[in-house]
Design goal:
Number of domains: 1
Structural class: mainly alpha
Number of helices: 10
Strand order of the largest sheet: 1-2
Order of helices and strands: EEHHHHHHHHHH
Radius of gyration: 19 Å
Distance between the termini: 58 Å
Strand content: under 5%
Shape: globular
Largest sheet: 2 strands, antiparallel
Oligomer: single chain
Helix content: over 70%
Length: about 240
């Protein structure tokens, strides 16, 4: 039977083409992230040593990316989420990700964050597309796949189980952010950051549910582009009098 998509009748050929495009988009994201990590590891791994120590970014991206890819396949197979998104949804996700950085930039202007917290430009152009895949795999894809696998062993209704899983998984990143910020940022910053990152995660996971993984990755990439790359390049001379 033909499927209806976005108000238009979608036949078998169109649906097959759409699924193929979705798979290619996801594969492209994983390949670009691993390639970026490989180039940066080859050029200068010292730029991210303050974050990861001696950890190899290429191995980290490849390993977590592989786990994320397997997790995404399970989530699609279980009909919890889907992979692709339309160009309009991806553009909307990027724009939303960019706009969500405004509150944290204001907190930064108020002195809420330490000086050394971003990989410097231009290496940041390679680092953050790679680490965005790592973050999505670790914080979202793998935990959701684990919970979806547990759900398969129960009789719990899918929509409700997925909603509960989204709520639980959304807590992981803010808890880590608060733990990492303890002792480095003021208490008020950590309280704000915990609640704010929780809200961002809930928004991101709802976009994943509605528009697919490509839009989810696009949201984080938009956020990272403004917060870590653009603002990260400007904040040292503006706020700390340091070199760009």
């Amino acid at each position: 039977m033909d499927q209806i998509s976005d108000g238009h009748l979608e036949g078998p050929t169109t649906a097959s083409t759409s699924r193929r495009a979705s798979r290619l988009s996801v594969v492209a994201i994983f390949l670009v992230a691993v390639a970026a990590s490989a180039v940066l590891t080859w050029l200068n791994r010292d730029v991210y040593a303050f974050l990861f120590g001696n950890l190899n970014l290429l191995l980290l991206t490849a390993a977590t990316g592989a786990l994320g890819a397997g997790a995404l396949q399970l989530l699609v197979a279980y009909d919890w989420f889907h992979a692709g998104a339309s160009g309009r949804n991806v553009a909307t996700a990027i724009g939303l990700g960019c706009s969500l950085t405004l509150p944290v930039i204001i907190v930064d202007l108020l002195g809420g964050f330490p000086a050394e917290m971003n990989v410097r430009f231009p290496e940041s152009l390679l680092f953050y597309p790679a680490i965005a895949l790592v973050a999505e795999s670790v914080f979202h894809l793998v935990p959701l796949a684990l919970l979806a696998s547990v759900w398969r062993m129960t009789r719990f209704e899918l929509a409700r189980a997925r909603l509960l899983a989204i709520g639980a998984v959304a807590l992981i990143e803010p808890m880590l952010q608060v733990a990492l910020g303890a002792g480095q940022s003021p208490l008020w910053t950590n309280i704000f950051l915990g609640f704010y990152v929780l809200g961002v995660n809930l928004i991101a996971l709802d976009i994943f549910r509605r528009s697919g993984f490509v839009a989810l990755y696009a949201l984080r990439l938009g956020y990272y582009f403004i917060w870590h790359i653009a603002w990260g390049h400007l904040r040292l001379p503006l706020l700390f009098g340091g070199e760009v």
